[in-house]
Amino acid sequence: MHYYSLNNTSSPVSFREAAIQGQASDGGLYFPAQIPAVNADLIAHPNQYEDWEIAFHVLQPFIGRDMPETVLFQLLQETFCFPIPLVQVNTRIAALELFHGPTLAFKDVGARFMSRCLGYFSQGTNRQTTVLVATSGDTGSAVAHGFYEVDGVQVVILYPSGKVSRVQEQQLTTLGKNIKTLEVSGAFDDCQQLVKQAFSDRELNQKLSLTSANSINVARWLPQQCYYFFAWKQWRNQQNPPVVSVPSGNFGNICAGLLACAGGLPLRRLIAACNANDVVPTFLSTQTYQPKAAVQTISNAMDVGNPSNFVRILELFQLNKRLKNIFSAVSISDETTKNTMRRVFDQYGYTLDPHGAVGFSALEKHLENHPDELGMFLETAHPVKFYDVVEPVLQQRLELPPSVQSIMNLEKKATRIPAQYDALRAFLEQNG
Ligand SMILES: *Cc1c(COP(=O)(O)O)cnc(C)c1O
């Protein structure tokens, strides 16, 4: 399989090259040259397949000859080493719980797959790779844990100071070893901007082998398709396919869902559930795409004003007109998010995290107007990751899982930098 740059000026590369480079040298995002159709039997009889077999069938065509099948099998078994259950919340809404991995958020899937791909591709080379990543919270921790102690890989994480939760900050800053963390005085968009600048800095890239671990990397983006198929396997009513609501920030997760649909997964609808950062909902209603500075909300992993995967969504719409008709987007306020968390806890005994609550609320609104439809939302993080938001809203104490308890008192190791490219460059020259 080849991947082309959405800026269309770089030459196409293999999966291996796309995963190593992260972003094309013309600054574009990589996109697969074909969208393979998934095996019809897998759609008709998903129960006859193990999850990692499903993952293999979905992903193998995207990787092609760049990885022997036995290696890919192994890698997928390591990636999907935790359950992804579909849990019924009320009669019409189920939660696809993506938070049972090591850092309690769905980003564990992409980060685990990507780190193992880069580990495999770096075998037999002696060049050190530096993974550079901007995070609004969850990416960084998933990437840090995915790459921790992986030989030949150095990880540099940028996060916005004061804008991540305490659990996230501890997960980001306490590992040490090959994981270096930069606390940036600015917003997530500043961090993302700095990272983009580093990738387009030719001189720096001659010295260091830089790669991205944001959802723009195909090795993070593509495996996220798999759990839409796992959800389909657990869906009881194949005659009435689900509406799937996806809490969205950089739009990597929902873009993977669209790709799964392009490959043949029969979802009824995909809803991008956004917080107050509403550039995509506004685009759908006005046809004008107007990036904005991010505003801070209680679902901070979605505080993105210029979602990087938006260009992939446009490309998918070009290639497959049906996708445009099954895609919608809504913006949910913090007030509604909090009310939803309270109501769902009181009525159904289910604890939502703020991101999942945005997804739930968007889905509920849609289903109110479509009485024959049923749906699921992606519960993208464990509520405990955002306990500083969830506890006061629910007036309940959440129990910390052992994996979180053990890191809460570890020493934070982070270097503070201003949101200026010179500062990042100097750090990379010393530490990359
Ligand atoms: C990253 C994240 C999102 C947003 O996912 P995108 O792929 O960037 O749209 C939603 N919820 C949580 C908990 C996240 O960590």
The biggest sheet, with number of strands, parallel, antiparallel or mixed sense and barrel status, is:
6 strands, mixed
The coarse silhouette is: globular
Radius of gyration from CA coordinates: 20 Å
What strand line-up does the widest sheet have?
4-5-13-10-11-12
Beta strand count: 14
Ligand kinds:
pyridoxal-5'-phosphate
Uncertain residue ranges: none
Question: pLDDT average, as an integer?
Answer: 94
User: How much helix, percentage-wise, in residues?
Assistant: 40-55%
The secondary-structure class comes to alpha/beta
Q: Number of helical runs?
A: 20
Share of residues in strands = 15-25%
What is the distance, rounded to the nearest whole angstrom, between the alpha carbons of the first and last residues?
31 Å
Structure overview:
There is one protein chain. By secondary structure, this protein is α/β, with parallel strands linked by helices. Helix content is 44%, strand content 16%. The protein is built from 20 helices and 14 strands. The strands form three sheets. A six-stranded mixed sheet has the order 4-5-13-10-11-12, with helices on both faces. Strands 9-6-7-8-14 form a five-stranded parallel sheet, sandwiched between helices. A three-stranded antiparallel sheet has the order 2-1-3. It is globular. The two termini are 31 Å apart. Bound molecules: pyridoxal-5'-phosphate (PLP). Pyridoxal-5'-phosphate binds next to helix 12.
